[in-house]
Every structure is written in structure tokens, then in C-alpha cells.
Amino acid sequence: MAWLDPHATFDPDSYCAPVIGIAATLGDHDSGLHQHQRAQLLFTRKGCTRITLAQQICLLPPSRAAWIPAGVAHRAVMQQSVDYRSLYLSPALCVDLPQQVCVIEVSTLLGAVLEPMALADFDTDWHQGKHVHLLGLCLAEIRDAARQPMLLPLPWDKRLAPLLKTLEHLPPELQVLQTQTGASSRTITRIFQRETGMSYQQWRQQWRLMRAMELLSTGRNIGYCSFELGFGSDSAFIAFFREMAGVTPGNWLK
């Protein structure tokens, strides 16, 4: 049975087939930190999933999928109701696929292929019939998919521990962070540039964009997003979103 009960425990490594697919709708779910011997393609059909890695936060809004190579420790947190599909692929199938965690755009073809694969029985023979063709299309689509900027790198310098403990909340202005950490603004800027490839302001803006997408995906309106993310007005939030994402919040949701 490929449809996963919200309260069921599931270990993809306990099965022999090269592909194991599941479908589930979960609400306010936290997977906890874990890893598996198979690579995972996690596709959010409805709702939003946040995936925490060792040095990255990955946001998974609707129509996007996260590619997680085998052996990578990760934690998936789903807020409200999230309808998702997940494929677990044996290492032998992943030789030509990305070797790093990434977020990919799910094309119409990939979305159509994922559904029957996720709902297939655990003992499906993937070497013959229609399933071998579904698998071939799926692997090709993952390999060629456009990657999306939904990853936020995290600094690992211990002086920034106070910041990383409160990532659920809007990161403070640089001057406030300077007071919290005891490090100078120049030192903080140098750490962020070295460990994330961005200045602190760029990193903070990327956090705001990803959090905005998360809030919008879970049904929050423009006014709520504007207040939660520290904007003085709804129009300021919309202008920020358009500048960062290239579209307005409303068009992004569509």
C-alpha cells in the first residue's frame, strides 16, 4: 500500500525494489533528523515543507521538489496540511543525478510521472512494462530539471549561535546582531561572506523571501506577511517580493 498513514512509521531502506514511492497528506508534521541509504525526491503538491540540513535550510513550496542524495541527514517540517509525494531511489539509479541537495522545478511531465510512481505497489517490477518507461522518464526529468534558489546557506561560526537558535523569527538588523553576538559588524560581514557567499544583508533578504513564500503557501495574506517580516506597509512588502522573485506575491501563488 503506497498511501502512507499519518501515524505510520516508514523505513524505505527495508524494501528491496529499486524504487519505493509513497503518497501522504500530513498536518504539522516533524520528521526529526534522519537519513537513509536511498536518494529521495520529495514533491510538495499542496502546502509548504521546510527541510533543514547541516548547513542549509531548504524551502519546498508547491510545484517544487527537493532532491536529497543518499546519506544526507535532513529534517522535514510540514505546517498545517501538506499533500506530498516521495520517491526513494536506490544508489544504482542515481549515478547521473545531482550529488548535492537541490530544489528543482517540477515540469508537467515530471508531475504526471511522479503520481503513478508514488502510488505503485512496493513490490512493483521496475524492469519491465510501463514502469520501466516511467522510471526512465523520471530520471531524465530530474537530471534536466531547472534548479530553484530555495536554499539558504547557514554560517557555522560559533559566534553566530544566538542567530541560528532563533531562525523561526525575523533575523535582526546588523547593528542588533552585533550587540547580541559581541562581534563587530565588519567581523559578521566577513563571516557571512566566507561561509555563505553573501553579505549579512543579502542573507537576511533571502531569509525574508523564503519565509514570505512559506507564509503565502500556508494561506497567510499580504497584511500578515508584511507585518511578520518587518515591512512598514503592504506595498513595501509587495515591492520587495517583486524585486526578489520577479513577480508579485499573487502571481507567484498562481
UniProtKB/TrEMBL annotation:
Q: Where are the transmembrane segments?
A: none
Keyword set for this entry? Answer: DNA-binding, Transcription, Transcription regulation
Q: Name one Pfam family in it.
A: AraC_binding
Question: Which InterPro entries has this protein been placed in?
Answer: AraC-bd, Homeodomain-like_sf, HTH_AraC, RmlC_Cupin_sf
Q: Does the keyword Transcription regulation apply?
A: yes
Q: HTH araC/xylS-type domain: from which residue to which, for each copy?
A: 157-254
User: In the UniProt record, does the keyword Signal occur?
Assistant: no
Q: What is this protein called?
A: Helix-turn-helix transcriptional regulator
In the record, what lineage is assigned to the organism producing the protein? Bacteria, Pseudomonadati, Pseudomonadota, Gammaproteobacteria, Pseudomonadales
